[in-house]
Specification:
The chain is an all-beta fold. It is built from no helices and ten strands.
Length: 128
């Protein structure tokens, strides 16, 4: 059974950093594009960063550029999101998501409808 489980959320001071983990049971990450999305109260779910089946990230949304990185550990079947210089507007539920793709692809999508598997999300609150 395929399952995505996020962890690492919580309360973070403004200017602080966080590291979220997504454990992907039943997935071979060589055959999936993975992403982190987030959803703030009353707002649309938006892509934070994605990582392709080849382990690449070729596009960074403006708010993530220079502040966020995504990485993966194939052996642990875990995808990480690290963000620094956190702001109150980074508050929201952070979701891990996956869609199947060919191995070795350098591209990954930021279109949430493309993603077929989702975790339950982890709450991140940036406040002093």
């Amino acid at each position: 059974q395929q399952q995505l489980v996020e962890s690492g959320g919580g309360l973070v001071d403004p200017g602080g950093s966080m590291r979220l983990s997504c454990t992907a049971s039943g997935f071979d990450l060589n055959y999936y594009a993975m992403a982190w999305f987030r959803q703030a109260p009353g707002k649309e779910r938006e892509g934070v960063l994605c990582i392709s089946s080849s382990g690449e990230t070729t596009f960074y949304p403006d708010f993530a550029r220079g502040r966020a990185t995504i990485s993966r550990d194939l052996a642990q079947k875990t995808v990480y999101l690290e963000m620094r210089s956190l702001k109150p507007e980074d508050t929201g539920i952070y979701f891990c998501a996956a869609y199947p793709t060919a191995p070795g692809r350098s591209y990954c999508s930021y279109v949430k409808e493309r993603y077929k598997s989702w975790g339950q999300g982890t709450q991140v609150t940036v406040a002093s």
